[in-house]
Specification:
Blueprint (H helix, E strand, L loop, with lengths): L1 H18 L8 H24 L4 H38 L4
Helix pairs in contact: 1-2, 1-3, 2-3
Length: 97
């Protein structure tokens, strides 16, 4: 389940990079770093979720990573909304006079 959440976040970040490339020039490296980190976490969680049934420490860690993934998803969505507002303001200010 946590791996599925991370997979969704990674997909959203990738979609965002494609759709908002013009506005991401300054933060592109940071967004790509976050994407790489989330992919690494996703791979690890696939294995960890199986082990969490036998180890309470791993189970707790999986829960914590799941919460971090939810927060990361919220941050990505907030950033997307901010970039969309910025684009609309830019388009409105460069429109016909």
């Amino acid at each position: 389940m946590a791996a599925a959440v991370l997979s969704d976040v990674v997909k959203r970040v990738g979609d965002f990079l494609v759709n908002e490339a013009v506005f991401l020039y300054e933060v592109r490296d940071h967004v790509e770093w976050v994407t790489d980190e989330l992919r690494a976490m996703e791979c690890f969680l696939k294995d960890a979720e199986l082990k969490s049934k036998r180890d309470e420490r791993v189970k707790n860690w999986v829960r914590q990573v799941r919460e971090i993934a939810y927060r990361a998803e919220d941050l990505v969505e907030s950033f997307v909304l901010h970039a969309q507002r910025r684009r609309r303001l830019s388009e409105a200010s460069s429109g016909p006079i």
